[in-house]
Amino acid sequence: MSKVKKNLSLEEDILNKGLARAKDLGYNFSTYVTYLINQDCNGIEIKTVPKETKKKLDKESENSIDNILSL
């Protein structure tokens, strides 16, 4: 799995608390945020749409738009 860099805006006191908690757990801040997200999402099932279905839906949408514009 590759890492994706994103910016995160936090109030200074929240950042300081997070940095301190990460240090207490032996993590760096990035690892701690990842841990929190994983804990929050634990048990959530993410459904994905197969690419074939996406292509079919896209083609159906395209045809529907063409039909609407032809009216």
List the helices and strands and how they pair.
Layout: H1 12-25, H2 29-41, H3 51-70
Beta-strand segment tally: 0
Shape: elongated
SSE succession? HHH
Taking the sheet with the most strands, its summary is: none
Question: Proportion of β residues?
Answer: under 5%
User: Which secondary-structure class do the elements indicate?
Assistant: mainly alpha
Task: Give the uncertain stretches in residue-range form.
Answer: none
What's the gyration radius in Å? 21 Å
- Termini distance? 48 Å
Q: Counting H and I runs of at least 4 residues, what is the number of helices?
A: 3
Q: Mean pLDDT score, rounded?
A: 82
Instruction: Please give the share of residues in helix.
Output: 55-70%
Oligomer: single chain
What would you note in describing this structure?
The chain is mostly helical. It contains 3 helices and no strands. The protein is elongated, with a radius of gyration of 21 Å. The model has no long low-confidence stretch (mean pLDDT 82).
Key words describing this protein structure:
71 residues; 3 helices
Short structural description:
The protein has 71 residues and is mainly alpha-helical. Helix content is 66%, strand content 0%.
